[in-house]
Amino acid sequence: MRYSFVTSLLAGASIVLGSPIEKRAEYAMGFNAPPGGDVTILNYALTLEYLERKFYQEGLANYTQAQFIEAGFPDPFYKNLKEIYYDEQTHVSFLSGALTAAKAQPVTEAKYSFPSTDVKSFVTLASVLEGVGVSAYLGAAQAIANKAYLTVAGSILTVESRHSSYIRASLAQSPFPKPFDTPLDFNQVFSLAAQFITGFAPNDPTISPPFKAFPALKLEASRYAYTAGSSPVTFSGAMKNGVKAGLITADTPVYAVFFSGLDTYYVKVRTTRGDAGDFKIDMIPKGAVGQVYVVLSTADGEAAKVSDANTLSGVGILEVVQ
Ligand SMILES: *[C@@H]1O[C@H](CO)[C@@H](O)[C@H](O)[C@H]1NC(C)=O
Q1: Cα Rg for the chain, rounded, in angstroms?
Q2: pLDDT of 59-115, one tens digit each?
Q3: I need a labelling partner for 211 at 20 to 30 A (CA). Which of 47, 196, 197, 240 fits?
């Protein structure tokens, strides 16, 4: 049993290495178990934990306790950040140990780059990353075969969600904006993580995950806080990129698909006039609140549901107030 984990992991890796150009449909795995099963999922979790650990390690090295206080994050915020760092570090060692115990090879740490430049942008990004962590563990849950791993994943998930609430509250965001959290699938999370990954360790066959990053979705900066049921959103360059990549033509109906809690909202985009010809929606759906995820898709929610196969780009993240 143990050995079959390893074999299937390697099989999964060689599929990716052997055929770099994959058809979109082959990645329509969504929430199903990926090739390699639990080993791939543990390595997926480990990749996210590495990312979080590195992020807090840099943040704690970059900014002093006094700078946090000055930026409006009074004690014991700094001490609690150290505690979060310690948790992420412990998750890394635990998951590596679990993989080794299963006779599988843990992935090596990638190289990361974060866009935060000061305390405020660091804490804002921390909030986003913790939210993504929650969504990642939640989305992976149904693909985990071994119930013992499921309990472990659950016990990490609840701690990530506590980090998330604490950091959200420190930013005066609602600590628990909805009665349900939002599951994201493997490729959606990988797309988000990939934005911070600048390189994998060379010549390491275990690091080619069987996941795919969608083309990034850029939201035009908004001067106002996003509000459910009222704010517009413009997706910069998405139309041009989609046409250029041959995924759509200028006439293809495209939908902005919002994920919030267990709800999915489809909003048909319109195209703005002028050279830019950007996709735009006039109103974030009522009910999409908190850390809301959005992808562009050709699915309308009726004839077809959103899936990896019909996702054009994503994942965008919006913080939306009620
Ligand atoms: C820490 O500072 C370095 C150098 O300025 C910067 O490149 C990096 O993004 C910062 N990291 C974080 C998490 O803020």
Answers
A1: 20
A2: 999 999 999 999 999 999 999 999 999 999 999 999 999 999 999 999 999 899 999
A3: 240
Measured in Å, residue 50 CA sits from the centre of ligand 1 at 16
The 10 Å Cβ neighbour count of residue 84 is: 23
Residue extent(s) of CATH 1.20.1260.10 domains in the chain: 37-199
Q: The CATH number of 21-26+214-321 is which of 1.10.10.10, 2.40.37.10, 3.40.50.2300, 2.60.40.10? A: 2.60.40.10
Tell me how far the alpha carbon of residue 198 lies from the centroid of ligand 1, in angstroms.
Answer: 14
Which pLDDT band, with edges at 50, 70 and 90, does 19 fall under?
Answer: very low
pLDDT bin (cut points 50, 70, 90) of residue 217 is: very high
Å from CA of 185 to ligand 1 middle: 29
Residue 86 one-letter amino acid = Y
- Write down the residue that tokens 């041959």 correspond to: 246
Render pLDDT for 280-300 as a digit per residue (tens, 0 to 9).
999 999 999 999 999 999 999
Rounded to the nearest angstrom, the distance between the alpha carbon of 209 and the centre of ligand 1 is 26
Q: What is the pTM of this model?
A: 0.89
Residue whose CA lies nearest to ligand 1 atom number 12? 59
CATH 2.60.40.10-classified regions of the chain: 21-26+214-321
**114 touches ligand 1 (CB under 6 Å):** yes
Nearest to 268 by CA among 255, 250, 259: 255
Tens digit of each residue's pLDDT (9 = 90 or more) over 142-171: 999 999 999 999 999 999 999 999 999 999
- The more confidently predicted of residues 249 and 200 is 249
CA torsion angle 77 79 83 85 (round to 10): 80
Whether ligand 1 lies within 6 angstroms of the CB of 112 is answered as no
What's domain 37-199's superfamily in CATH?
Ferritin, core subunit, four-helix bundle (1.20.1260.10)
